[in-house]
Amino acid sequence: MMAYMPIPPNIPAFPIEVVDRIVDHLHDDTSALRACALTCRAFRPGSQFHLFRSLKISSVSKLHSSVQRFQEQPRLALYVQELHYWTKHEWQFRIHPTWISTIAPSLSPLLPNVRTLAFDFVEWVWPDYELTDELVDQVAQFRNVTELRFYACNFSEFLNVDKFTTAFPSLSRVFLHVCGWQNDRLEHINPRLSLKSIHFGRHVTPITPMLWLEQTPSVISLKDVSFSFVGDREAPFVGKFFRALGPSLKRLKLGCRFESEEVSQSESTHYGTGMSILI
C-alpha cells in the first residue's frame, strides 16, 4: 500500500510579486490559467483577471451562458474590460445577425467595467439591417467605454461610424481595420468628438475619416495617429491632415507604398521635436 507524505502545516508562500509574474506570463494560455485558478487562492484573482478580461459573444447560446455565469458569479463580471461582438459565421453565410441587438440589454447591467467595445465581421449595409439609432442607444448602455474597434465591418454610410462616437462621451480611441462604407457624405457630425488616438488599419481608405476628424476638436487633441498603409491617392490628404494636427501629437506611425515618383515633397510637414515617428 502506497504511503502518502503528510503536507507540512506551514508551507512558505510565494511572494505576491512572483505569483503575479507567473500568472502574467501565462496571460494567453487559457488551459494554464484555468489550472492556476484551481491551484490556490493566491493564484486565483490574477488567473481570473486574464480569463475574463476579454469576452467574445459569437452566438445566442454564448450570450445566454455568459449572462447565467455572471448572474451566478457577479464577482467574475467585474473582470470584463473588453466585449467583442463577433459575427463571423453570419458574415460568411450572408446572414443578418439580428441577435446582436440583445447583447447590450442583457449584459450592460452585469458588466460595469467594460472599457473597449469591438465589432468583428458585422455588416450594416442591407436595407432591412442597417445601423439604427435604437441599436446605438442600446450599445451606449456600456457607459464607460473609452475605445471602439471595428474589424471587417461595413456600413451603409460613414455617418454610422459617427453615430457610435456620439454615443460614448468618454471615447478617446478608435480603430478601423478592413472597414468600408457605401456613402462618404459628412453631414450633422458630432461636434464634440475629442479623440486621443486613431488607428487606420489595412484595407481602410482614410480620406473620409480624416475629413471627418478635421471638423472636430480631435484634430487638436490627437496624441497618437497610425496608418498601416498609405498609397499614392491618399498621400496628399494625409499630408493635409498632418498639417492640421495640433501640438498634442506625440506619436505617428506611417506605412507607405508609393508606386508613383510624383508624390510631391510638398506633402512633408514640420513635426515637433517631442514626437516619435515610425515609418
What does this structure look like?
33% of the residues lie in helices and 18% in strands. It has twelve helices and twelve strands. It is globular, with a radius of gyration of 23 Å. The longest helix is centred in the N-terminal third of the chain and has 13 residues, at 60-72. With 279 residues, it is α/β, with parallel strands linked by helices. Helix 2 (30-37) packs antiparallel against helix 3 and helix 10 (207-214) runs parallel beside helix 12 (235-244). The model is unreliable at 262-273 (pLDDT under 50). The N and C termini lie far apart (69 Å). It has a nine-stranded parallel β-sheet.
SSE blueprint:
Layout: H1 16-25, H2 30-37, H3 44-52, E1 54-57, H4 60-72, H5 74-77, E2 82-86, H6 88-92, H7 103-107, E3 116-120, E4 123-124, H8 133-139, E5 147-151, E6 154-155, H9 159-167, E7 173-177, E8 180-181, E9 197-200, H10 207-214, H11 218-221, E10 224-230, H12 235-244, E11 251-256, E12 276-278
Parallel strand pairs: 1-2, 2-3, 3-5, 4-6, 5-7, 6-8, 7-9, 9-10, 10-11, 11-12
Helix pairs in contact: 2-3, 10-12
